[in-house]
Design a protein that fits this description.
The chain has 4 helices and no strands. The protein has 128 residues and is mostly helical. The chain has 2 domains: 1-81, no CATH class; 82-128, no CATH class.
Length: 128
């Protein structure tokens, strides 16, 4: 019986915090994220191993399903709306690819530099 109530509380706490935040006209997303941080810090170490495994598998399943639905809806939305492809041209496509690669280069460079500043000499990220 204890395992059932532990798992139920792990799933009801974020939902209840969301309902309270929405009722008070606050951000439900921020409420869920804050609740998740507190649950991870306080509740996870205090529940049984079996409950922890059940909650982990269930959260992973819900996350995978939600991610799949988001990409499914994005894919449907791509073809469901009338996009002005004729007005865009190949220049927009090439500019987008160049901008994405440049942004990735900057992101990796900056993150690597910041990470290397905090690591020891043996653990630094190097270009091969």
């Amino acid at each position: 019986m204890q395992m059932t109530s532990e798992v139920a509380m792990m799933f009801l706490c974020p939902y209840v915090s969301y309902l309270i935040a929405e009722g008070l006209q606050l951000s439900g997303i921020v409420s869920i994220l804050t609740n998740g941080v507190f649950l991870n810090y306080y509740a996870t170490p205090n529940i049984s191993t079996t409950s922890r495994k059940i909650a982990s598998v269930t959260y992973e399943t819900i996350a995978y399903t939600a991610e799949t639905l988001v990409f499914l809806f994005l894919g449907i939305g791509l073809f469901a709306f009338d996009h002005p492809y004729k007005e865009m041209g190949a220049g927009l496509f090439l500019t987008t690819i160049l901008n994405l690669n440049f942004a990735r280069f900057l992101n990796v460079s900056v993150c690597t530099w910041i990470t290397n500043r905090t690591r020891g000499e043996q653990n630094k990220i190097v270009r091969k």
